[in-house]
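A protein record pairs a chain with a discrete description of its three-dimensional fold. The shape at a given residue is found from the number at the same position. Here is what such a record looks like in full:
>
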Amino acid sequence: MLLQLLVSFLTSFVFGAKVYNCPDGWTNNTNCGYTACYYLIEADGTMNTIINDLCPKMNNLSYGASIHCADEKAFTSSTFGKACTGMYLYGVTWSPTAFVNQDGTPIDYTNWAASEPNDNTSNLAVLQTAGGSWYDVGGTTCTHILCKIKLNTKTCKNKA
């Protein structure tokens, strides 16, 4: 293991190569100019599954998935189907600009369905359908959460 880490470090340092490894059971994909790992988890159907960091509890490097381009949206919706993302309403006053990504990245891509987001104060989460359209929904709609790890040169493992 130590030898593998040393070889990975030297390869990255000397040749500028990056090592991309997903934890066991996660799906690797490159889009939007970076490589990430994705994992679909079943949720308890409450908003707390997003706010209370269910994805980081699965793997300390993961968050609810942030979607940054049409290719990533197409990949995640076709691969995982209907799931809540890591985008949610932050704060007590509803506003279409009050949504944030759990991982702290900017919201630089959206794919809202017609009439969405629809200004409903109970709709705190963002659900991506299998067709790729986004809806703001109540937390009880979140029966599946899409988790994501944006990779760099680190190798990550699932928590035991």
In short: The radius of gyration is 17 Å.
